[in-house]
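Example for tutorial group B:
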């Protein structure tokens, strides 16, 4: 009786296996045979009904059918897997002789590059990097920098007023008072950012960039400013750079200086970049006017400071030999392409 059943199950399941067309169907057959209530499983469970003397024989017959079916399942499974692999190999074939897709790698904008270089050097020297608003109040841009309303020194910086009191900042110096109000000395900050003035020619654009530096501490002197700027310039333009300090005037520093460096292009002999002078004017600086410290709530008897302001567009133009400042703002891809691979 059980032998009859076994024969039938064997035939039925082998046909299912042979006729299955994918792995899912094959798996269904596996469950049908060996699952919890599978046909082969059921037979093993029914062994109790077989006469004890017949059990070894029937047991080995069941095992033989089990092995045979397992073998069939395995073979069929390998068949499906090989077919799948062949299909993938065919479908995902790559023609290695085909030209590759060109990956376009961008370049740093010259001004962004200068900002990175300068702030990196300053951070090495212990400065914190801060940012300030480009839309600024008249107070922070001018008055707190010792440039009162209607004072003639305002003429040096003709900016864009939004209202009588709100303007586009004409100098990053505007962050000085903001930071002095916020911080307790000693501190060292640099602030890179956009600035605006009503100026327009080959070397001036209404929008340009500056980097402001401010150090407030006890016993600060012009000597600290000079040594710090010397290190900064040499790191930016190279060890053999010569630095020249000239007396100047800014309402917020006393004394004030302007700083020139030997032309990195001709090393001081004279070329078109430095207009034959061998030197380039790069920044304004000075010892912070005690009045400026006081206006922002810093005790000028105890603390002193020095400050400096770089023109970044000019610095970028020198480093990358750019003759017209407008090239920096035209977004002409041919110009930007030239900045690659530096
Ligand atoms: N803000 C000045 C300008 O735009 C540059 C400057 C000069 C900044 C002297 C300073 C400084 O911090 O001490 O012309």
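The residue assignment follows.
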């Amino acid at each position: 009786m059980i032998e009859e059943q076994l024969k039938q199950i064997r035939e039925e399941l082998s046909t299912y296996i042979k006729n299955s067309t994918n792995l899912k169907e094959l798996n269904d057959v596996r469950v049908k045979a060996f699952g919890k209530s599978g046909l082969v499983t059921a037979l093993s469970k029914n062994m109790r009904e077989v006469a004890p003397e017949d059990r070894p024989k029937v047991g080995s017959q069941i095992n033989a059918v089990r092995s045979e079916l397992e073998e069939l399942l395995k073979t069929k499974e390998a068949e499906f897997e090989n077919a799948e692999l062949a299909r993938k190999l065919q479908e995902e074939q790559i023609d290695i002789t085909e030209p590759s897709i060109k990956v376009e790698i961008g370049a740093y904008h010259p001004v962004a590059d200068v900002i990175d270089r300068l702030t990196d050097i300053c951070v090495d020297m212990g400065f914190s990097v801060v940012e300030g608003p480009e839309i600024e109040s008249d107070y922070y841009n001018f008055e707190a920098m010792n440039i009162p309303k209607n004072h003639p020194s305002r003429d040096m910086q003709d900016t864009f007023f939004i209202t009588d009191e709100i303007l586009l900042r004409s100098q990053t110096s505007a962050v000085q008072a903001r930071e002095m109000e916020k911080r307790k000395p000693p501190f060292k900050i640099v602030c890179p950012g956009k600035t605006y003035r009503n100026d327009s020619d080959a070397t001036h654009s209404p929008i340009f960039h500056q980097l402001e530096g401010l150090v407030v501490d006890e016993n600060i002197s012009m000597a600290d400013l000079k040594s710090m700027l010397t290190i900064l310039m040499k790191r930016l333009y190279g060890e053999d750079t010569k630095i020249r300090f000239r007396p100047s005037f800014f309402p917020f520093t006393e004394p004030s200086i302007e700083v020139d460096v030997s032309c990195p292009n001709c090393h001081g002999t004279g070329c078109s970049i430095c207009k034959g002078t061998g030197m380039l004017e790069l920044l304004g600086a000075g010892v912070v006017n005690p009045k400026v410290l006081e206006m922002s709530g810093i005790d000028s008897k105890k603390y002193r400071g020095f400050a400096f302001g770089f023109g970044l567009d000019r610095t970028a133009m020198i480093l990358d030999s750019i003759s017209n400042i407008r090239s920096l703002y035209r977004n002409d891809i041919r110009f930007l392409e030239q900045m690659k691979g530096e």
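The longest strand covers residues 207-217. Compare this with the pattern of hydrophobic and polar residues in the output above.
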